[in-house]
Amino acid sequence: MTAETSQTLDRGLRVLKLLADTDHGLTVTELSHRLGVNRTVIYRLLATLEQHALIRRDLGGRARVGLGVLRLGRQVHPLVREAALPALRSLAEEVGATAHLTLVDGQEALAVAVVEPSWTDYHVAYRAGFRHPLDRGAAGRAITVGRGADDEVSDGFVLTHGELEAGASGAAAPLRDVGGIEGSVGVIMLSDSVPESIGHRVVAAAKEVADALR
């Protein structure tokens, strides 16, 4: 720790990260062992985090992430959207298709930023806030690819047709190496298929968005 950092804040954030990585919660003893600090320190950290609803403790004493984290998370989407818009605008205008940034929200894929091309006679109407299962549509499948299930990926992107909207095809690529964010960048267009050249352009756009978010 340097003089400019807070050891207490650092430990509190590490507690939150540990709890976010487990579905069943952690006990004071488990947290003490993992952080290498005594139980008294852990009790104080949990009490403070609980006051802000960032953690909760069940009847068995196990600590879990609290609902207060969700309130903080809602403020992340506007920041992510703002960072992604330049790359999405460039993608939409270049390929003449609706471009989107999709993030994981629970067990679903959630479109958080959408840009439609300005020069086409027609394009797919796709709105921010649209949700769909992770196993349907190019955006959701690309997120799964980003988790390591790469049996469906070709050259870093996923192509689909008619999975979310009849007559529409999609291409998407996962965001790579962006800590704390699972998502994909893609396009959707009215066609029987998406040319592979557009798939490669989507991969480039995903890298641009990832760079903007780091």
Largest β-sheet summary? 6 strands, antiparallel
The fraction of residues in strands falls at 15-25%
Overall body shape: elongated
Radius of gyration: 20 Å
Order of helices and strands: HHHEEHHEEEHEEEH
Quickly give the structural class: alpha+beta
Strands of the biggest beta sheet: in what spatial order? 5-4-3-8-7-6
Helix content: 40-55%
Instruction: Please mark out the parts with pLDDT under 50 across 5 or more consecutive residues, or reply none.
Output: none
How far apart lie the N and C ends? 23 Å
Report the strand count.
Answer: 8
The overall average pLDDT, rounded, is 91
Q: How many helix segments?
A: 7
Keywords: DNA-binding, Transcription, Transcription regulation
GO molecular function: DNA binding; DNA-binding transcription factor activity
Pfam families: HTH_IclR, IclR_C
Protein name: Helix-turn-helix domain-containing protein
What's the quick description here?
Helices cover 42% and strands 21% of the residues. The protein is of the alpha+beta class and 214 residues long.
Write structural notes for this entry.
The protein has 214 residues and is an alpha+beta fold. The chain contains seven helices and eight strands. A hairpin with a 2-residue loop joins strand 3 and strand 4 (108-115). Helix 2 (28-35) packs across helix 3 and helix 5 (76-95) packs antiparallel against helix 7 (196-213). The longest helix is centred in the middle third of the chain and has 20 residues, at 76-95. The radius of gyration is 20 Å and the shape is elongated.
